[in-house]
Amino acid sequence: MSYKAPRRYSNGRNFGVERQQDFVADIVPRRPYENKGSNKWSRNLVWTASGANKPRKNGNTYGSTKPQVSGAGALVSNQQRKDAAYVQRSSSVSDTRGWGSSDRGSPKSKECVCKFWKAGNCKKGDQCSFLHSLTCLPGLVMVAALEGHKKDLKGIALPQGSDKLFSAGSDGTLRIWDCHTGQRVHTINLQAEAGSLICEGPWVFLGLPNAVKAFNVQTSKDLHLNGVVGQVRTMTVGNGMLFAGTSSGSISVWKATDSESDPFTYLTSLKGHHSGEVTCFIVGGHRLYSGSVDRTIKVWDLNTLECTMTLRHHTDTVTSLLCWDQYLISSSLDGTIKVWACSENGSLTVTNTRRQEQSVHTLCGMSDAEGKPIVFCSYENGTVSICDLPSFEVRGKMFSTNTVGTITIGPEGLLFTGDKNGKLRVWSLAGTKV
Question: Residue 201 — φ and ψ, nearest 5°?
Fold first, then answer.
């Protein structure tokens, strides 16, 4: 295994872990989809921090490779986890190309899961025209279903140096699972709704009403961070700072310090914040991007903490954000996925819009074993499409009985998904290089 030279944050403590030097670059002027060098995902993917769809066609097309897959993994310990995006290999199940490629399966095809099979009473067996599986991507298998949550899952976290998986939901519980056995080892009654859960290095951050809880799995240090107004809905880490977006539209900021007694100091609440609930974050290069129910995306300078621009092209709640290479990708309840690039005058403009027949809830990205970027797109009907970038050609799908609102990438080909019924599933995708 070859590791890149680590880089530390420019300010403050690095949350107890060195980060790899493959941050996404700042979004700068460039010809749309001019592919120079390797594709790089943001190191601060929102681990959420989101069906039968027919996108609008346009003229852009891009080819893609179709690597083969083999084998499958299982639940593993995270003691030696690499703090980076885990590359994966999968095969394509579609021969279409371009932004206009269809994401719609035939009504009688193996890309539609059988509703009777999901209910446990399909009588046709192998003769059924529909899929008797929760996935139609070769090499992707479900290895565990973790039961316990009763309502919408708000976050899944696998902190560095731990063999425990953490999950939190709007049912007011934090559950801890053993990665070796898949058994629940502890349930904590939070006495309040959990709005967000992330991890960074050994730290686990839990968003609650008017507060953030921080727990270090290595030192067992347990902190209560004040300075929040409203229910915390989303969090991320960037430039040695923790950001928490709330239901009031505010964004609270804490600075990591070198003090063992006070490792996080409240810094500020960002000015010029959203007029509605903050729903999602992503950090790319020297910028923080925030999405909101007010239908806007705000761009913040991580050095000055000033809002430098507001993006207004969505017509409903912005649900998820990704940074890929030189581009920002956003999804919305308006049924679109938009790709943004920097124009010559420095503003971000939409270069492509992928239209769906239903709302898009979560985006999550990684690279496959060939270094090709893939994106997981979660839709209202419980389907998660797995697509190539930049073509959005569909490689395969995952299925759930309800909308998947949380997707977390784990080590060694593992994926964790949580839906709005509280179902937490563990998946393994073969062909991963770590």
Answer: 60, -130
pTM: 0.75
Please name the residues in contact with 11: beta carbons below 8 A apart, sequence gap of 6 or more: 239, 240, 241, 255
In this prediction, residue 394 has a pLDDT band, given cuts at 50, 70 and 90, of very high
189: exposed, middle or buried (Cβ count in 10 Å: 0-12, 13-18, 19+): exposed
Residue 374 region by backbone torsions, left for phi larger than 0, else alpha for psi between -120 and 50, else beta: beta
Q: Give the whole-angstrom CA distance, residue 116 versus residue 38.
A: 44
Helix, strand or coil, per DSSP, at residue 126: helix
CA angle 60, 62, 66 (to 5 degrees): 150
In the structure, how many helices (H) and strands (E) does the chain have?
A: 1, 30
Q: Give Cα separations from 430 to 67, 88, 211 (angstroms).
A: 11, 7, 39
DSSP 242-267: EEEEETTS-EEEEEE-S-SS--EEEE
As a 3-state breakdown, the chain gives helix, strand, coil percent values, each rounded to 5, of 0, 45, 55
> 48-429 belongs to which CATH class?
mainly beta
Q: Which amino acid is at 181?
A: T
Where residue 29 falls among pLDDT bands split at 50, 70, 90? low
Contact 264, 274 (CB under 8 A): no
pLDDT value for 118: 67
Q: In sequence order, what are the residues at sequence separation of 6 or more whose Cβ sits closer than 8 angstroms to the Cβ of residue 121?
A: none
* Residue 370: alpha-carbon gap to chain centroid: 21
Dihedral angle of Cα 32, 35, 37, 38, to the nearest 10 degrees = 90
| Residue pointed to by tokens 């309502």 | 151
* Residue whose pair of structure tokens reads 């959990």 in the numeric block: 194
What residues does each domain of the chain span?
48-429
Phi-psi region of 43 (alpha: psi -120 to 50; beta: other; left: phi over 0): alpha
Query: Token digits for 224?
Result: 């209560």
- Residue 116 host element (H or E): helix 115-118
What tokens appear for 16 in the block?
């107890």
Q: Which range is most confident: 2-16, 40-54, 62-76, 330-344?
A: 330-344
- In total, the chain counts a number of residues equal to 434
Could you tell me which residues are beta bridge partners of residue 52? none
Query: CA 291, CA 152: separation in Å to the nearest integer?
Result: 20
Report DSSP letters for 143-166, one per residue: EEEE----S-EEEEE--TT-SEEE
Query: Taking the chain, what is the end-to-end CA distance rounded to the nearest angstrom?
Result: 7
